[in-house]
Amino acid sequence: MLSNVQVLPGASSVARLGEVLLWFETGPNGGGLMVTQLLQEVQGVASGSVPSHQMGARLAAVLNAGDAEAVPALAAATPEDGGLRVVVHGWGAVVADGVHVPNGWVDQVVTDRRSFFLGRNTVTPMVPTSSSTLDLEDGVVPGDGVSFSLSTATEPSPRPGAGPGAPAPPQGPPPVAWPPPRPAPEPPAAEQVSAPLRPPPTAPSSGGSPAGRLVLDDGSSAVLERTCVLGSTPHTSPAVQTGVAIPLTVVGPGVAGVHAEVRVDAAGVAVRDLGAAPTHVLPPGALAWTPLAPGQVMPISPGTRIALGRRTFSYERP
């Protein structure tokens, strides 16, 4: 069951229909008839007329049948088989017990997790607190994300007559690794980029002021506070897993799972190609993109543009 459902304020929307939660983009790139149809499919899952394992296929059918420019980003979730079925599209994100689930298009059951965040993947996820009194019930409210806890019927209950000293129910197995990256090298073409994931609140900082921002061509951005790894599944990088860097997710044609690194240190900011797929750099005033060799490090200045496959963004500093 879903509990402690807290909404992060914002201009997007959060809906709860029974045991189904849905975050979706609103505004120029989302809304209207398509959102109504998505909510109808979610209502079908909530009512039991549509099996939860069909939620992803139902939502995908609505998205694929509509105007591509009106397709909203979304993240949906509902309890299923002792875990949580999550469906993610576009700029949506899912964070499960502090672990980022790969975004882009996702339809999977997440098990052995209890605290979740659904929402825009350029915001810092909220963490549910046991003292919170806010618990969203049915309805649609403004919000850039929603955090919640999950309890399942598979957890053992205390024995009849057991007193306060009874042992706690055993926990499930340790978390499993997410799927490995799937490189797809291509040169830069169209100038679009998937919004990156901001680091969780517990991520250590570099100790100084931010080094600037990585700005996406859709207008969204992420604060560059420390070294980060970019790619479609950057959390699989050893640097991220050991805490040396934070993950910034970029999904699109030609983007490898662990594609490039933006370094932040006393010497300044630099880009390093990680060898899985081509990385291109366009310094301010340059007339042509410069391809980086595998492992090559290039210092960058504000105004520099970076291409991972067909996704581009720029490094800016106020």
Quick structural summary:
The chain is mainly beta and 318 residues long. 10% of the residues lie in helices and 34% in strands. A six-stranded antiparallel sheet has the order 8-5-4-3-2-10, covered by helices on one side. A six-stranded antiparallel sheet has the order 13-12-22-21-18-19, with no helix packed on it. The protein has a five-stranded antiparallel sheet with strand order 1-11-9-6-7, with no helix packed on it.
Could you describe the 3D structure shown?
This protein starts with a strand and ends with a strand. It has 3 helices and 22 strands. With 318 residues, the protein is mainly β. The strands form 4 sheets. Strands 8-5-4-3-2-10 form a 6-stranded antiparallel beta sheet, covered by helices on one side. Strands 13-12-22-21-18-19 form a 6-stranded antiparallel beta sheet, with no helix packed on it. A 5-stranded antiparallel beta sheet has the order 1-11-9-6-7, with no helix packed on it. The chain folds into 2 domains: 2-150; 213-316, Tumour Suppressor Smad4, CATH 2.60.200.20.
The number of strands is 22
Cα separation of the termini? 45 Å
**How would you sum up the major sheet?**
6 strands, antiparallel
Listing every helix as H and every strand as E from the N terminus to the C terminus, the arrangement reads EEEHHEEEEEEEEEEEHEEEEEEEE
Q: Roughly what percent helix?
A: under 10%
- Please tell me the overall pLDDT: 74
In percent terms, what proportion of residues is strand?
Answer: 25-35%
Assembly type of the chains comes to single chain
How many helices?
3
Regions with pLDDT < 50 over 5+ consecutive residues?
153-207
- Quickly give the structural class: mainly beta
Please tell me how large the radius of gyration is.
21 Å
Total separate domains: 2
**Shape category:** elongated
Lateral strand order in the biggest sheet: 8-5-4-3-2-10
